[in-house]
Amino acid sequence: MQKIKKGDQVVVLTGKDKGKSGVVLGMPSENRIVVEGINIARKHQKPMPMKGIAGGIVEKAMPIHVSNVALKNPITNKPDKVGFKILADGRKVRFFKSNNEVIDT
Questions:
Q1: What percent of the chain is predicted at pLDDT more than 90?
Q2: Which of 100, 56, 65, 53 is closest to 81 using CA atoms?
Q3: What local confidence, expressed as pLDDT, does residue 104 receive?
Q4: Distance from first CA to last CA of the chain, Å, rounded?
Q5: What domains can be seen in the chain, in order of their start residue?
Q6: Are the beta carbons of 63 and 32 closer than 8 angstroms?
């Protein structure tokens, strides 16, 4: 089980986008994530008429290391550390360490 999953709201802790928040779009590898609107790179794209892709300069969200982001606590609207615990029914869930609020339901 991972601390950050696809669809989570995260806050960037370091780098050029420090303080910005976004939703996790995907995880291309085990320790990197792609966040919506974070770490945007400009790429020169060749036109591909067969596929209907126009050429030009496109902006693309690039992966960022998971250690540079933290899960956003919706109650406090601040970044928070995540822990794991096992509930009485035997399920393993994530929780915020500041207020022991369970993330997964």
A1: 86
A2: 100
A3: 75
A4: 15
A5: 9-74 (2.30.30.30)
A6: yes
Question: For the segment 45-80, what is each residue's pLDDT rounded down to a tens digit?
Answer: 999 999 998 999 999 999 999 999 999 999 989 999
Dist CA 71 CA 77 (whole Å): 10
DSSP string, the chain: --SS-TT-EEEE-SSTTTT-EEEEEEEEETTEEEETTSSEEEEEE--BTTTTBPPEEEEEEPPEEGGGEEEEETTTTEEE-EEEEE-TTS-EEEEETTT--BS--
- The C-alpha atoms of residue 100 and residue 103 are separated, in whole angstroms, by 9
Q: Is the pLDDT of residue 95 over 90?
A: yes
Closest to 69 measured CA to CA, from 28, 27, 10, 29: 10
Question: CB atoms < 10 A from the CB of 92, how many?
Answer: 10
